[in-house]
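Notes, p. 3: input format for complexes.
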Amino acid sequence: MQAPSAGPALHERLAPLSFLVGTWRGLGVVGYPTIEDGRYEQEVVFAHDGRPFLEYSSRTWILDEDGNRLRQSAREAGWWRPGREPRDVEVMLAHPTGIVEVYVGEVAFRKVELRSDLVARTETAKEVSALHRLYGIVEDTDLAYAIDLAAVGQPLQPHLSARLSPVEGQLS
Ligand code: HEM
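Output follows (172 residues plus protoporphyrin IX containing FE):
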């Protein structure tokens, strides 16, 4: 096994978000009144290059009842930035489904709460109007989150929740 390389030091302005840095993998559940409930596998990466932003990416796979991958599902990519005050965070995410989200949020002791400030979409994208995301460390090691969604005429309500564990390296 290769030892992880040291890499650049985390920028001091990222200190409140430092608990997110790394590669995370685990399982989640998806639901919404208009779709079938399901389970998914996810890999999330929060990377940095020494500058004051985190590079975020997520890949998911829908699972069958035995936990085998059925198909690739949602991906998202973007940037997490410190805001004006030390506890403020600004997040921009883009989706292959034609949606772009801008969030304002707050971080407090290994927990981040994000509310969409703006959701933009392409001509052919589904109607998505608002999201709310809550991420936090649970049991000292895992990253858990819950995401509420207002879309396709439905009010803000749960779409996703997952619990991810820290891993070395990335999935193939
Ligand atoms: C972990 C990330 C996510 C997963 C695993 C996921 C999974 C799913 C699944 C399985 C469906 C049912 C349709 C299908 O099978 O493709 C769906 C529908 C949908 N999702 Fe997600 N999703 C994720 C994130 C998001 C996000 C971030 C948004 C909004 C920006 C979103 C908005 C929607 C919408 C609008 C629908 C369609 C609802 C409808 O047409 O009735 N999803 N999602």
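The two ends are 17 Å apart (CA to CA).
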